[in-house]
Amino acid sequence: MPDPAPPARWLSIVGIGEDGVEGLSPVARGLVSAAEMVFGGERHLKLAAPLIRGEAKRWPSPFSGAVREVLAQRGRQVCVLASGDPFFYGVGSVLAAHVAPDETLVVPAPSAFSLAAARLGWALPDIAMVSLHGRALDRIRPQLHPGARVLALTSDREGPAALATLMTESGFGASRLTVLEALGGPVERIRASTAAAFDLGGVAELNIVAVEVVASPHARVLAYTPGLADDLFEHDGQITKREIRAVTLSSLAPLRDELLWDVGAGAGSVAIEWMLAHPSLRAIAIEARADRAARIGRNAAAVGVPELEVVEGRAPEALSELPTPDAIFVGGGASAEGVLDAAIAALRPGGRLVANAVTLDTEATLIGRHAALGGTLTRIAVSRADPVGEKTGWRASMPVTQWVWVKP
To answer: What is the pTM of this model?
Structure first.
C-alpha cells in the first residue's frame, strides 16, 4: 500500500519587526505576498501592507477565538504575522498546538530580547528573560538577585513605571532600568534611570526594560533553595516553618509539569515554594478560612508566583472537583475525618503524599496509616539558640512527624 501523500504546507508564520518589510527576507516577503489571507494585529498588518495581496484579517478580540479562525482556513494559503520570533512568547507556540510542523513554514525575525541584548552588549545565556506582557509584574520577583541582569517585556507604556515602583517598594530602588522602545524601527529610543528616581515620560507602547539589579540590605531577595525565611510570608502563626518546609519540599520531590494540592494551606508557603522550584509547576492551595485564603493570594504575589490557584473550602468536600494531582501535601487537618482517604483516592498512581503532624492526635493518625500502607515515617526536631538570662541555651520547637507515601 503506497504511503499517504504528505500534507501540504498551507500555514506560514512570519516574524516582522519595527523596520517593516525592509527587514524581511526574500522568503518572508514571498510568503506574505502569496497568502490568500494574512492574519495579524493592526500594527503588523500596517507594517506589512505594501506586500499584502490577499485579504488582511485583524486578530479577533478577545484573542481566544484566533486559533479557530486560522484553522477554518486550512487548505488555503494563510500567513500569520507575529512580532519578532513567533516562538519566543509569541503566537507560534499557540498555533503549533493545533497545526503539525509539516503543515507550517516559519520565518522568525529577531526577538525583542535579542535586539535589546544586542544594543546593550549583554550575552543572552547570562541573563534572565521574563515576559510581563499580559502577566502580573510580580513574576519578576524571583529574578531580583544582587548583580543580576534581567530583560523584562512589558505590556504597555505604563509598564516600566509600574515595574520601577514594584522594585523600589521591594528594596531594589538603586537598580538601573534601561527602557528600550520600538527597537529596530525608525523611532527607536533607549533611555535609563534608577528605579527609585524613575521619571521617564512618553514611553512607547512597545518597550522592553533591561534591569541591572542592585539590592539594599533589606531587599526581598528570594533564595534559590527551598526554605525561604518565614518573614517573607504574611502569616498568623499557621505556617510550615522554614526548616520543616525545606524537608517537606524535598519529600514532595517536584518534577516538571506537575500539579500539587496543598491541603490546609495556612499561609500557602509550601505551595508557593513548590511553584518557585520551576516555571512549569502548578499548585492549588486549599484553605477553609476566608482570611487565610486571601492571605495566601497576597503571599503568592509577593513571592513571585501570582498564578497560584487558591480554593476556599474545607477538605475533603473542597477536593472533589479539582484536577488530578501529582503530589499532595496535607499540612493541616490530616486527622479530620475523610481528608487522608480523599487525598489517597485522588492521587494519581505513582504520585506522592506528604502529611505533617504536630499534635499527638494527628501523629497517631499518621502512625496508623504508615502501619497499614507503608511509606516512610520521620520525626523532625529543630532547636534554636536563644537567650537564657545572661547566657544562651537551646529552645526546642514542637517536633513534626512526617509521613511520606507513594501511591502504587
So the answer is: 0.91
Query: What are the phi and psi torsion angles at 92 (to 5°)?
Result: -60, -45
Cis peptide before 349 (omega within 30 of 0): no
CA-to-CA separations, 189 to 40, 163, 179, 180, 315, in angstroms, rounded: 25, 19, 8, 6, 54
pLDDT tens, 239-260? Answer: 999 999 999 999 999 999 999 9
Query: Rounded CA gap, 353 and 203, in Å?
Result: 49
With H, G, I as helix, E, B as strand and everything else as coil, classify residue 230: helix
What's the distance, CA 75 to chain centroid?
A: 36
Mean pLDDT across 52-61: 95
| pLDDT above 80 (res 3) | no
Cell of 73: 482556513
Q: Is 24 exposed, middle or buried (0-12, 13-18, 19+ CB in 10 A)?
A: buried
DSSP string, 46-64: HHHGGG--SEEEEPPSSGG
Give the tens place of pLDDT for each residue, 338-357.
999 999 999 999 999 999 99
**Length reported for the chain:** 408
242-252 vs 269-276: helix axis angle to the nearest 10?
60
Q: Which of 325, 312, 246, 247 is nearest to 285 (CA)?
A: 312
Helices 269-276/290-302 angle, 10° precision: 30
At 399 the three-state DSSP class reads coil
What H or E segment, with its residue span, contains residue 248? helix 242-252
Give how far the C-alpha of residue 289 lies from the chain's centroid of Cα atoms, to the nearest Å: 26
Alpha-carbon distance 71 to 67, whole Å? 6
Whether the ω angle into residue 110 lies within 30 degrees of 0, i.e. cis, is no
